[in-house]
Amino acid sequence: MSAIHQVLLAGGAAAYQVPYSLRFRYSNNASLSRTGVVSPTNDKVFTWSGWVKLGLPVTSALDYGELFSGYTASSDAGFGKIRVSNSVSGVPSISVSGWATNYKITSAAFRDPSAWYHIVVAIDTTNATAGDRIKIYVNGTQVTSFVTSNNPTLNQTMGMNNASTAQRLGLDAPASSAYHYDGYMAEVNFIDGQALTPSSFGQTDSATGVWVPKKYSGTYGTNGFYLKFADASAATATAIGKDSSGNANNFTPSGISVTSGVTFDQMLDTPTLNYAVWNPLDTRGGAVPTNANMNPGVGNSQGVRGTFGVTSGKWYWEHTLVTASLDYVVGIGNQNPFGIYLGSNTDSVGYFSASGEVRRNASAIATYGTWNTSGKVVGFALDQDAGTLQIYVDGVSQGSAFSHSLTGTIFPMINFGTGYGTPVGAINFGQRAFSYTPPSGFKALNTANLPTPSIKKGSLYMDATLRTGTGATASVSSLSFAPDLVWIKSRSAATDHGLYDAVRGVQKQLESNTTTGETTETTGLTAFNSNGYTVGALAQLNTSAATYVDWAWKEGVTPGFDIVTYTGNGTNRTISHALGAVPKFMVVKRLDTGNGWVSYHASQNASPATGYMYLNSTAGFAAASTMWNNTAPTSSVFSVGTNSETNGNTFSFVGYLWSEIEGFSKFGSYTGNASADGPFVWCGFRPRWIMIKDATAANLGWRIYDTVRETFNVMGGGLEAADAAAENYATSVRGIDVLSNGFKIRVSASGVNGSGTVFVFAAFAENPFKYARAR
User: Fold this and answer.
1) Considering all CA atoms of the chain, what is the largest pairwise distance in Å, rounded to the nearest integer?
2) How would you classify the pairing of strands 411-416 and 328-333?
3) Is residue 67 within 8 Å of residue 80, measured between CB atoms?
4) Is the peptide bond before 714 cis (omega within 30 degrees of 0)?
5) What pLDDT digit, counting tens, does each position of 388-419 carry?
6) Sign of the dihedral defined by the CA atoms of residues 348, 453, 109, 707, in that order
């Protein structure tokens, strides 16, 4: 096994490693097939397990992503398939279908291209319980929400495991060329005669809470097979299509290449070593990456970013120009909106194919060799520790490393100018062999090479809990930490929010949606415990049979959260905090009645300390230098001015302050486009909790999303910090997809995606991207 695969579980234990995957290119009609299936152990009971990383987006009702299918006759008993499909639900759903019957189509949308999913389908038509005859699991969890749910009849044979069945991966079994899959598969197991759970193929890493592969150790049955795609010596059934179960149920490849170069389809990109690809959720001008997101798919005035962003380290990748181009531009950029081409503004650097110029802010900062002929390989050596970039063409340095002068998180990028057609290029972030040896110390863009985050599992410092009211004292004991801030909101009723913190003490309540001051509620939150908290019978927090969501945070330097109390003096001053880093988000509340929740967000304005927003209001940014004394916070203090709402003389205040912790919290902004294909927002983690606010005008009152209330995409949020209303999940406000590396706006509604509007957000992690699964 390659040294690049010698990694451990986050907890330090030896991990099972999946060394290879196989790329299925839609453009090449890629598939694997096996014909002449013999009499099965049981044609009514079987399990398919596979790890998949999605490529070409499923965007229309005619698109299919065929994972596995079997065909012997044109009937439900003679044909079956597992796919990622858009045909019925309107979103890419996992489905199990027969010839005429769609059995199960998930409500969830599966369209995260940046990480891996584990999909298990267990079928047992001998089960007396009809609803248990087909079970679908994703990342170790059973799917229970379906837009379509039909059940096979008792003891029905299923076409995926019949005698004489033609079985295929990546293609509809009747071999219809329209129904190909685009993406990657790894560690594919088919178990004939057993309906198994995911625990046979995976396990939870205790240090991260993430579902990871483990080797299947059971029996396979007559028609069972195990495809690990380890032998790339030939594109044959006994090499890349070899069955490693011991049954010799080999698969014949079609449209699969094992010839070195840009079409090589055996990949190092696996569920235990995730690599960067082009991100089809983060494009400009309608670009559609292809070939499992390794070709950018850019045309006139189009562009795309990579799925990895970095703030430190030394990184190397290559781009091969497959067809000649007059105006191809490759380079790097941050996450600010695309310019017309790379290098047209201060947020990107672009290397032009025809002129050889390297541009930033519309000016040439260097002139290198041209590379506008077919087969040219451009190599990038990005040193984020030094802030430099060095460029190579066919392995030859084009000059000394230069300062790229970009701020923030840096991404690989590509785009194409206007009026020059659609060239073809192929990226390589290390998932196949590089054409040229990277410079010493530079690494491939994969998750093993990402820095180890200080917080591997977000639920150790922030979590969300669902609860049904009892009308009597009740305790929550499911947290992995002793909380210092608990924020409670009824989901089912229009009641005020309730916030309690350990610094002010139990029973001391505030309400984020009102200007009401601190009240003592003897039956409110009555105890902070080592693994949760206790609430009394206060109707606002614990009405019998009402439903609630509770959000909790732990204070400390590690999670970047501090609770500060102080007494105002009415003069310009500083207040000490204990973060040891600059706060990016602050909320201050005067504890008497009639004063708002004054917030500071580092992205609320070009000069955020010149004004404020209210957490308890729908209003956007307002100028008032007296709030923060027109002074940005530092790593040790924040400033307040003479305004009575942040520093009224003799009044008591509480402040909640957060700094940004890489891989755990993010406080940023994005610009809306009023499209259902809204902005992609990089966080560097899979979020657990997100709050969004229009920073420019009166709009929704700090809309809150979390993955405990909605466990799958698309998420609606349905609660607002400034509003007492119960949850609202109307179609028009179903807002976002939570992803392995951030979130994607999926609604055109002005409250989260007004055209040209700047929105600020606060987000906290479920898992850092280094470990995260696709959602």
Assistant:
1) 86
2) antiparallel
3) no
4) yes
5) 999 999 999 999 999 999 999 999 999 876 65
6) negative
**Among 681, 701, 581, 695, residue whose Cα is nearest residue 281:** 681
pLDDT in tens, 459-506: 999 999 999 999 999 999 999 999 999 999 999 999 999 999 999 999
Beta strand segments in 236-294, E: 252-254, 266-267, 278-284
Instruction: Fill in the amino acid letter for 581.
Output: A
State the Cα–Cα distance between residues 177 and 189, nearest whole angstrom.
24
Is residue 292 classed exposed, middle or buried when 0-12, 13-18 and 19+ CB atoms within 10 A define those classes? buried
Residues 184-208 as b/e (b if ≥16 CB within 10 A, e otherwise) read bbbbbbbbbbbbbebebbbbebebb
Return the half-sphere exposure (C-beta side, CA atoms, 13 A cut-off) of residue 700: 26
The pLDDT of residue 3 is 36
Strand partners, 561: 556, 658
Look-up of token digits 């809150």: 704
Q: How far apart are CA 64 and CA 24, in angstroms?
A: 13
Q: d(Cα 7, Cα 17) in Å, to the nearest integer?
A: 8
Say which amino acid occupies 616: N
Instruction: Report the C-alpha gap between 691 and 702 in whole angstroms.
Output: 6
Q: Is 635 helix (H, G, I), strand (E, B) or coil?
A: coil
Q: Taking the alpha carbons of 143, 148, 149, 155 in that order, is the dihedral positive or negative? A: negative
Query: Residue-wise over 395-432: b if at least 16 C-beta within 10 A, else e?
Result: eeebeebbebebeebbbbbbbbbeebeebbbbbbbbbb
Q: Please say whether the beta carbons of 768 and 455 come within 8 A.
A: yes
Residue with tokens 């591997």: 456
Answer for the pair 205, 14: CB distance below 8 angstroms, yes or no: no
Residue 628, H or E segment: helix 625-628
Q: Among all chains, which residue has been given the structure tokens 């100028």?
A: 623
Distance CA 82, CA 158 (A): 12
Q: What is the CA radius of gyration of the chain?
A: 27
Is residue 765 within 8 Å of residue 682, measured between CB atoms?
no
**309 CB burial (10 A radius; 0-12, 13-18, 19+):** buried
Handedness of CA 405, 406, 410, 413 (dihedral sign): negative
Contact 464, 717 (CB under 8 A): no
Q: Which residue pairs from 141-147 have beta carbons closer than 8 angstroms and sit at least 24 positions apart in sequence?
A: 141/198, 143/94, 143/104, 143/106, 143/108, 145/106, 145/107, 145/108, 145/712, 146/104, 146/105, 146/106, 146/107, 147/88, 147/89, 147/93, 147/105, 147/106, 147/107
Classify each residue of 574-599 as buried b or exposed e, where b means 16 or more C-beta atoms within 10 Å of its C-beta: ebebebebbbbbbbbbbbeeebbbbb
**Nearest C-alpha neighbor of 425 from the set 296, 287, 317:** 296
From first CA to last CA, the distance across the chain in angstroms is 29
Region 637-664 average pLDDT: 98
- What DSSP state is assigned to residue 453? P
Reported pTM: 0.94
- Please give the distance of CA 672 from its chain centroid, rounded to a whole number: 19
Confidence of residue 61 (pLDDT cuts 50, 70, 90): very low
Give tens-digit pLDDT for 210-252: 999 999 999 999 999 999 999 999 999 999 999 999 999 999 9
CA 184, CA 293: separation in Å to the nearest integer?
Answer: 10
Angle at 387 between CA 332 and CA 424, to 5 degrees: 20
- Nearest of 685, 681, 588 to residue 643 by alpha carbon: 588
Instruction: Evaluate whether 45 touches 124 at the Cβ level (below 8 Å).
Output: yes
- Read off φ and ψ for residue 754, nearest 5 degrees: -65, 140
